[in-house]
Structure formats: C-alpha cells, structure tokens
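Give me the fold.
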Amino acid sequence: MLAEGATAPDFSLGDWTLAGALKNGPLLLAFFKISCPTCQLAFPFLQRLAGAARGALQIAAISQDDRTGTEQFHRRFGISLPTLLDPPPYAASSLYGIRNVPTLYLIEPGGSVSMAVTGFSKAHFERLGERFGAPVFRAGEAVPAFRPG
C-alpha cells in the first residue's frame, strides 16, 4: 500500500489516465470488489461525498470485477460514480499495492498521496467532508467508526 506523502504512480485504464484526471484537481481513487461487505458499506457514503462536494473533488471508483457485476453493484447500492475496470491481472491495483478493499487514496494535483486508508474509516470520511465542504453523515445516523477491508 502506498503511504501518505508518496508519489502516486501514473496509470491508464482505457482512455482514462491519472495524469489527465489530476489536471482537474484533487482525485479520490476508490478501489473495490463487488463481493466486499465493507465496500458495500462505504460506497453509498462515497456517493454522498461526490454529490455534496459539487465538483471540488473528483472520485474515480476502480472495480476489480467485470462490467456486468460492477453495473449490478452500482444499481443495487445507488452508485453513479465514474467507474473504471481493473481486470486481472489488476495492473492498476498492483501499482498501488492493493491487498484489501476498499482502499482509498486522495491524490493532490501534483501527484502526492495526501490520504491512504484501507477499509471504512468514519474519521477519514469526516476529514474529506470537512476539506471539501461536503458533509457525508447525517445527524443521528448510526455509522460504525471502522470496518476492516
């Protein structure tokens, strides 16, 4: 897993490139698998974050599954995030040292990793919400503090 402060390796999936995306501002990479219960918990909150951030933060979901399964996951959990497919042998995931999902990396326009977390961390989501003016959790909402990936 890349550490905070590391330089994010550039990669491409289809026509999408990390370098191209970073020209538009900070980017949150969210690696996931559709069968992962922690991903199923985290992704609706990522969707909320994307809606509330109103363009201040880009989010790119990176699925380690096929297109059909990924589309079913999106429908089931109400996800409309831009999603890239990283099929076996998981070239992008390997560059980032992904061993468990979900794994999130906040990458700054210069390419440095300013946040790296595996699993679901309420504190990290709160930090993202504060930075991008996008509250993620609703008052009184029962949200676990942490779930491992």
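The longest strand covers residues 27-32.
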